[in-house]
Prior knowledge:
The complex is a heterodimer.
Chain A lengths: L2 H5 L3 H22 L11 H25 L8 H20 L12 H5 L15 H25 L4 H20 L11 E2 L3 E2 L2 E2 L3 H27 L1 H11 L1 H7 L3 H27 L1 E2 L6 H14 L5 H20 L3 H16 L3 H17 L10
Antiparallel strand pairs in A: 1-4, 2-3
Chain B lengths: L2 H4 L7 H14 L2 H14 L5 H13 L3 H11 L3 E4 L5 E7 L2 E6 L5 E5 L4 E3 L4 H16 L4 H10 L6 H13 L3 H15 L5 H10 L6 H13 L3 H50 L7 H18 L4 H26 L8 H22 L16 E5 L2 E4 H23 L1 H11 L1 H6 L4 H24 L8 H16 L4 H22 L1 H18 L15
Antiparallel strand pairs in B: 1-2, 1-5, 2-3, 3-4, 6-7
Helix pairs in contact in B: 3-4, 4-6, 5-6, 6-7, 6-8, 7-9, 8-9, 9-10, 10-12, 11-12, 12-16, 12-19, 12-20, 12-21, 13-14, 13-15, 13-19, 13-20, 14-19, 16-17, 16-19, 17-19, 20-21, 21-22
Amino acid sequence: xxxxxxxxxxxxxxxxxxxxxxxxxxxxxxxxxxxxxxxxxxxxxxxxxxxxxxxxxxxxxxxxxxxxxxxxxxxxxxxxxxxxxxxxxxxxxxxxxxxxxxxxxxxxxxxxxxxxxxxxxxxxxxxxxxxxxxxxxxxxxxxxxxxxxxxxxxxxxxxxxxxxxxxxxxxxxxxxxxxxxxxxxxxxxxxxxxxxxxxxxxxxxxxxxxxxxxxxxxxxxxxxxxxxxxxxxxxxxxxxxxxxxxxxxxxxxxxxxxxxxxxxxxxxxxxxxxxxxxxxxxxxxxxxxxxxxxxxxxxxxxxxxxxxxxxxxxxxxxxxxxxxxxxxxxxxxxxxxxxxxxxxxxxxxxxxxxxxxxxxxxxxxxxxxxxxxxxx
Amino acid sequence: xxxxxxxxxxxxxxxxxxxxxxxxxxxxxxxxxxxxxxxxxxxxxxxxxxxxxxxxxxxxxxxxxxxxxxxxxxxxxxxxxxxxxxxxxxxxxxxxxxxxxxxxxxxxxxxxxxxxxxxxxxxxxxxxxxxxxxxxxxxxxxxxxxxxxxxxxxxxxxxxxxxxxxxxxxxxxxxxxxxxxxxxxxxxxxxxxxxxxxxxxxxxxxxxxxxxxxxxxxxxxxxxxxxxxxxxxxxxxxxxxxxxxxxxxxxxxxxxxxxxxxxxxxxxxxxxxxxxxxxxxxxxxxxxxxxxxxxxxxxxxxxxxxxxxxxxxxxxxxxxxxxxxxxxxxxxxxxxxxxxxxxxxxxxxxxxxxxxxxxxxxxxxxxxxxxxxxxxxxxxxxxxxxxxxxxxxxxxxxxxxxxxxxxxxxxxxxxxxxxxxxxxxxxxxxxxxxxxxxxxxxxxxxxxxxxxxxxxxxxxxxxxxxxxxxxxxxxxxxxxxxxxxxxxxxxxxxxxxxxxxxxxxxxxxxxxxxxxxxxxxxxxxxxxxxxxxxxxxxxxxxx
Lengths: 376, 543
């Protein structure tokens, strides 16, 4: 299948990818070429912020894939995101080398602090970028595979599955808070110096990470589009709308779910791996159940089962969060809470559905036609 | 302790005992008694320690309960003598010097300069004598609590005067706990007896005793005991003690587990109604618990003088506040989302954020101090090795009461019948004339109100802050899912089981790892039994 067939009929997606391309070209120019005195100059802080939003957008796309097209409301995607982030964080920790506060040639600072004498076995190999990058995908994938295999095989569905995924991320959060786990405990991993030999603080590296995030988002988006336009995607939608019926027709529902769920987790892992070098820290707070639920609301606000809606939602909500927490810190939780309520009550199809809603409303005014419902 | 033991004597110190007995005889006549004591009180500030000791003996023999206070002051170095008449006084700092009170009857003697009083000094021998005398005095007190304290203080004291006092007291003591201590004290004293037979009897008497003193004394005896028979007996006794201690430790773990379980049940039982019966995922459940806890705080603020009764006001208040809030949430948000559980999850999560921020802005972002009434503090001492703290005990009982009350409401009232009818088949219930909208609102209000009541109980155990609800929401869902949705009994069994399992694992796994293991266990358990411990049968289960 070529790019044409994947993106066919996805006008929102086309527009989103076009905007992404423009941003990816213009922002680096505005940052590197335009002088700082110019009002057109984009600060490195903004570039990093945008890069962070893009990784969130990729995460939201991953959630939309399983929620919008498969009907699985995962409250554990922050866990996959966090695991990917930790894999990258471990690589970045190893890159510090002997430049840490304690100057130990091998051990990261927190291990020296805890009086550990040698590197735990699971830290080996993370000095290699390719290995860490692989782990950032494989570890979340493996966790999703094992969890999904057990859950889908025994037909844990709906609310139960949501609560189980939430328990999973909660358990991970508690585990990563433990110093004995060897992941820096409460403080997590931080004080990163460089990535692949490039200084993390330099503008060029930041631009590079921003571009990598944009590329990953585009790639992830196309991959998800490819899945949802394939036969697999159509079976997934069938499962979402009538699971028992799909099973009776003869599809192996558990395998379809497992494949897409695992892929989505890997995508979340990639997002996490790109997120960590840009924000410069990863700690167990990333696993908090609140994060998982919050990212579900990004998707809900953007519009479920559209993929590009997830991108819009993630960027809008996070921009709002950055703005509100700076301008009115008190109001942010009120605003976010109200968003949850208003979107679920009045905007079941999100912002992406708004266009369609207005269009059908106009059409129904001219000729009172019934319009197809998207089932929840 | 056996009677043979009690009848033993201490020949090597009979002389002192005789002096003691003589003193009693001398001071017995009442008229001379007062004079004797008055003289003794003056003698207390004598220069010679011998004179002071004799005076202490006289005062102690007087049997005046107030004498114990005086002697304690002397022992603690707080007793002074007035220079003018050498009368013993207690002093408190005052602007011009000291304010004096009479050491015996506590009457106010006015203020004096610093130089007008002199501290009464004591030496080590007097300290021992004083302790013994105080013990003997307090042991005869009519108040069992004072007697118990005295018995505990003189535990294992081999001083013959003390032993004699204990024996005497045992003859008339009717409080079992004091008797236990006195028996133990005698046995401990006998462990130092020179005759191996006496030690053997004492060792056997201490077998299985739960008092730490008994265990320590036996361990010490084992290291220095020459007689092999006594050694063997001591070893046997120690083994018996260890076994009993293990049993008690297990009982304690079970209690802690049940206590944690009762907290889980309390937190989850409201959810068992909203989630289990109505199918609504109420993520704001934890915040309703928080609202209940804050109601307790506000009630306590509103009635500062009546702390002991505040909880009895707070429980109905929290039920009403949280219940009304629940009805409000149901009427404004949830009723539009029936049949779409995942949407209720998101909407109620939004409500939980709003409630948290509301508390943060209106009250404080910090934790507030909810006080414990006096009857909640302290512990029920089952035996020396096992004490059940009252707050945990009451909350365990309270959880069971809430559970029974809910069960009765659901099974025995008209509302309960309607709730169950709507849960089973909404359309059919409506066609039978059940006003399902009203039932929904009331059911949700009931679940929310129970969450508020749980908040009152939890405010007595944990910190009360805007985030407290989040700590319970996941656990609560785990309990409900583990127990089987729509089944109150399942929630009870699941909550208690998880609580006990958590506490059983804590000693070797640590608190956090135990919690993780429990979570993993539930995740795996749900794979095997997707409908929980007690699945609902029939078509209603295929929701």
